[in-house]
Amino acid sequence: MTDSLSFDVYGDGPGLVLLHGTGSTGLGSWGTVLKGLAAEFTVVLPNLPGSGGSPLPDGPLDLDTVSDRVVTAAREAGLERFAVAGLSLGAPLAVHIAARRPELVTRLATVVGFSRARPVLRLNLELWADLYARGDADLGKFIAMLSFSETYLAGLPEDAVAQVLQQVGAMVPEPGTAAQIDLALRLDVREDQAGVRVPALVLTAGEDRFVAPAHSYELAAEIPGARLVETEGGHASLFEDPQSSLTELLKFFEG
Questions:
Q1: Is residue 129 part of a domain?
Q2: What is the pTM for the complete model shown?
Q3: Is residue 11 part of a domain?
Q4: What is the per-residue pLDDT across 37-48, written as a single tens digit (0 to 9) for each?
Q5: Which ranges in 40-189 belong to alpha helices (H)?
Q6: Are 201 and 227 in contact (CB under 8 A)?
Q7: Which of 13, 89, 122, 229 is deepest in the core (most CB within 10 A)?
Q8: Tens digits of per-residue pLDDT, 223-239?
């Protein structure tokens, strides 16, 4: 079995690598803004180990190894240099790559990301891992509660809220979900932040109950010259209001 990550490629233009969140895929995390980004860039969407058909190795995932495989996927897709953006778990991976491979990375963006799991995020991840391992029927409610903002859910008709919960609960988890949760719990890229030497954008969502905005404040404070932008919505802000984030991302990557 090859260790290479599966990936999708869209568009034409300067290279842009988009890294997805825990238990998701490239298309699952970035699909709502993909059309807008692919109109300007060659967008490469690697699938992390255990997602989207990418092989899941034996043993725990290693930050360096996963990062190297992302770079390999970008090169296999034909990119020589590229901007990189990471959502949630993808954010610390993007920071790590930007710090370690400055000859390859042109710009860095994080979306609802973190450099390490602060206490509440750690509790969220540990509970997610427990519910997932047990096959708990309430896992969908848990994910929906943390993903969507109070404002978004309160604005939906009651039957629509029930439909959202049903859809989230019916989603088939990616095989690598547990391993990716474990990686999110263990990683810490705070030492990498100061080593980033490219323009950086940190996008946070004001009502994020999964990865609290404090995580993005840390990123913005420690990455030299990073610009912090707070959008409305929850952890699923790219789903709730994709245009706001797309506008900020395009403005940054085209700068």
A1: no
A2: 0.96
A3: yes
A4: 999 999 999 999
A5: 63-76, 90-100, 119-134, 139-147, 150-154, 158-170, 177-186
A6: yes
A7: 89
A8: 999 999 999 999 999 99
